[in-house]
Design goal:
Elements lengths: L11 E3 L12 H13 L4 E5 L6 H10 L8 E6 L1 E3 L5 E4 L3 H15 L4 E6 L8 H13 L3 E7 L3 H10 L4 E5 L11 H8 L2 E5 L30 H20 L4 H10 L5 E5 L4 H11 L5 H10 L12 H4 L6
Parallel strand pairs: 1-2, 1-10, 2-3, 3-6, 6-7, 7-8, 8-9, 9-10
Antiparallel strand pairs: 4-5
Keywords: Oxidoreductase
Protein name: Aldo/keto reductase
InterPro entries: Aldo-Keto_reductase, NAD(P)_OxRdtase_dom_sf, NADP_OxRdtase_dom
Length: 324
């Protein structure tokens, strides 16, 4: 599979759902999914030290036993605080916290280094220069190869990049979330920073498998405005427009949505949040789906950015994001 300049695969596997937020996952199937991804060339494995309050890193360690470390590109997010009952209780991006968290991550993963390390959100109480400065120390010490950012705005990206080169920005980007196109995407391209795009299927809305009767699913989507009431009706109507195009291309909606993200440039890396091997097939299918300029224009006409109903997170979380 084609690699970009930082050494990650063209598509990444997001591991969060194997430990958190989407309900119980089968441990053996999760590990089998990681193995199949690696076997088929997806080397980028995206995790967080707070996913499942440590469960996700331990799961990844188990999955990588017996594998060559250099064959995996491990990206780790940090800085989010969790309580013993799994509650979300804030963030801490102080330099001391960054170094402490990394020490624990290295132990949990059983590795000497992390390929890419990033704060999960920008901490409003800690200057970004201090956070990135501490991470730069860890690069010099050999514990980290690349530094990333997540959900940061253009001004913050510029400030961080002056302290140490930022290798990627991880932020939500899909047909249903295109707010980065105005300012953030031009900024990172000016600076030579790659885009790690998560939420490419808008948490299942763009899978083509979500239906009205699934409203109120017993996971965090039950609190997401895009999955509520009239918003859901409007968004599912947009999905049906995409389905028509997908069927003409002999693909499904998910493959079309992933292929659209892939079409945005060699510096864009879609993260696929698969929990099962069967869910990886859409990613592989998208890699082989060719979209012409006419196809792309038709897709964007079918789903205008302003037509998507509802924000991507609940109101109290929106203030932590770099775009809206």
């Amino acid at each position: 599979m084609e690699n970009i300049k930082i050494g990650a695969s063209k598509i990444g596997l997001g591991l969060m759902g194997m430990s958190d937020l989407y309900g119980a996952a089968d441990r053996n199937e999760s590990i089998a999914t990681i193995h199949e991804a690696l076997e088929k060339g997806i080397t980028l494995l995206d995790t967080g030290d707070f996913y499942g309050t440590g469960h996700n890193e331990l799961l990844l360690r188990e999955a990588l036993q017996g594998k060559k470390r250099e064959n995996a590109f491990i990206a780790v997010k940090t800085g989010v605080l969790r309580s013993p009952d799994g509650g979300w209780i804030g963030m801490n991006n102080r330099p001391e916290a960054m170094k402490n968290n990394l020490a624990q991550t290295l132990q949990k993963l059983g590795t000497d280094y992390i390929d890419l390390y990033q704060p999960a959100r920008v901490d409003p109480n800690v200057p970004i220069e201090e956070t990135i400065g501490a991470m730069a120390d860890m690069v010099k010490a050999g514990y980290v190869k690349h530094i990333g950012l997540s959900e940061a705005n253009a001004a913050t990206i510029r400030r961080a990049h002056k302290v140490h080169p930022i290798s990627w920005l991880q932020i939500e980007y899909s047909l249903f979330s295109r707010g980065i196109e105005k300012e953030i995407l031009p900024t990172i391209r000016e600076l030579g920073i790659s885009l790690s795009a998560y939420g490419v299927l808008s948490r299942g809305l763009l899978s083509g498998k979500w239906s009205k009767d699934r409203q109120g699913a017993p996971d965090f989507r039950s609190f997401a405005p895009r999955f509520m009431g009239e918003n859901l009706d409007k968004n599912l109507a947009l999905v049906e427009k995409l389905r028509e195009i997908a069927e003409e291309k002999q693909a499904n909606v998910a493959q079309l949505a992933i292929a659209w993200v892939l079409s945005k440039g060699e510096d864009v890396i879609p993260l696929i949040g698969a929990r099962k091997r069967s869910q990886l097939q859409d990613a592989f299918g998208a890699l082989n789906l060719e979209l012409t300029e006419a196809d792309l224009a038709r897709i964007e006409e079918a789903v205008p950015a302003e037509a998507v109903a509802g924000t991507r997170y609940a109101a109290e979380q929106m203030g932590m994001l770099g775009v809206e």
